[in-house]
Amino acid sequence: MCGIVGFIGKAEAAPLLVEGLKRLEYRGYDSAGIATLSNGVLERRRAEGKIVNLEKVVQASAANGTIGIGHTRWATHGIPNETNAHPHATDKVAVVHNGIIENFQELRAELIEKGYTPYSETDSEVVPMMITRYLDEGMGPIEAVRLTLKRLEGAFALGILFAGEEDLLIGARRGSPLAVGFGAGEMYLGSDAMALAPLTKQIAYLDEGDWVVLNREGATFYDQDDQQVEREVTETAMSGALIGKGEHRHYMLKEIYEQPQVIGDTLSSFFNPTTQTISMPDFPFDLKEIPRLTIVACGTSFYAGLVAKYWIEQYARVGVEIDVASEFRYREAPMPDGGLALFISQSGETADTLAALRYAKSQGQSILSIVNVPESSMERESDAVLHTHAGPEIGVASTKAFTTQLTVLACFAIALAKAKGTIDEECEARLCKAIAEVPARCADVLNHDGTLREIALKVAEARDVLYLGRGASFPIAMEGALKLKEISYIHAEGYAAGEMKHGPIALIDESVPIIVIAPTDSNFEKTASNTQESVARGGRVIFMADEHGVQKMADHAVASVVMPQVDPFVAPILYSIPVQLLAYHVAVHKGTDVDQPRNLAKSVTVE
Ligand code: F6R
What we know:
The chain is about 35% helix and about 25% strand. By secondary structure, the protein is of the alpha/beta class. A hairpin with a 4-residue loop joins strand 16 (about 270) and strand 17. The chain folds into three domains: about 5-240, 4-Layer Sandwich (Glutamine Phosphoribosylpyrophosphate, subunit 1, domain 1); about 250-435, Rossmann fold (3-Layer(aba) Sandwich); about 440-590, Rossmann fold (3-Layer(aba) Sandwich). The protein is built from 20 helices and 27 strands.
């Protein structure tokens, strides 16, 4: 989603801004732009599409100056064209904005009344217009921004540059994250530490409602009541090196292949190889006393939570309520006294999940988050955090973040069950042994890449695809369908295999491939029966099961993927990999933009 960079220093700003924007590309965007101050005059360069287009514009017509702001825009209000691209500007001020100004129509009408003329379809443009209005009324830049911030409703992060002010950059945050980087005689603004990592490791995050005034010597922070405050400067762990694709054609493939490694890295935070046991860090709440667990997340992270519901209810016997964050945040769910609420997010910044977290906090819940991006907003607002050690995930379609989330959740389920006394030592040992084997088994699954590439040729021709699973394989069916939808643009649905007869079976004919996820577990026979019901109606089944399962369905499936024989407990982690690879190869075959699929953003910071 939209990304912001800002620079004030000694070097030419434009190349640094463009480099910073490249590091934010992974968030997803459809236009980009920069503004600099050249001899006190605002210079603006913008382009529709990828950053390479912006680079061409900057090469053709340089934007000089040692101070500037830059932006990648993911369109919300107004189509992705050059006119709607940021920075938005008047002759006095240029602004980059991430988020949505909810009352923009009202503000726009007020400004038109006062004689200001908008030129774009965006909500963002009202911000430079409103600042200009206050400047025109005689206020200084800082006061004009302070008053403008009071007028804005909605979620935003802003970077603001003023004509004639060579040593002034202002940032503001409400709802959307913003970081300040500290250098020697240079200061930076960025949507996240990733954008700033090659420039500095010294980072301070704006708190909710904060705004900050930067000059070359430092930063002055103000809180939402305009009181001057101190914000801690920390050393970011984010690597400064540009993250490459290695030998792989796409980030997504590289990230799929990293899974044995990053699952192992994640596991090592919880698994003691000497005692072969799982333990959790010290929590500021007592797992034994938790009456009920609420899990909230979005998209792929939600499916990870759904798998965890099966694990936690089965082994720890704790009731789990789970919802997508965009629904949960507004439905005023009652939450039990002493309850624990668990939020799962790769980015730690997803607007809906963050809002749901704040709601749960207001209901007196203890807050636990599972996040991949260290220092993220969710981490900072939680009582406790468990990290996935997936490393930066650049491909928009989540892969390694998902399987590392499952790894953390599996460990958490074991620890909760142990704390509750609902599993005996034998069961605990079995589950721990199963989870410890996952990295090696994942490596085995990657050997099926070639088979999945061939199966993908068949699936790529389809208009609709069904994914079926039961129990903890049901969320994997939904995750498989989501992966296929988002990167190949083929319509796909994940269903609980037992639900087929209640409607979806009507869709089946020979043109609809059916991907069945069927590890050997207590549900296998039922899933096999449901599969046969589909085959009997002309369905072309692609069966993902272990040797025993594949043999059983040999006469019915048009293709199979032979998975390793594993404890059913960890099957969801392993069966995620073939559905990722299948979606990947279908997308490559179709020639879509695998790493940055159309319309999608990596970090969804608007609701
Ligand atoms: C799908 C995908 C999204 C994210 C969702 C939540 O491949 O990546 O569905 O899972 O936007 O994002 P996070 O986990 O950052 O909260």
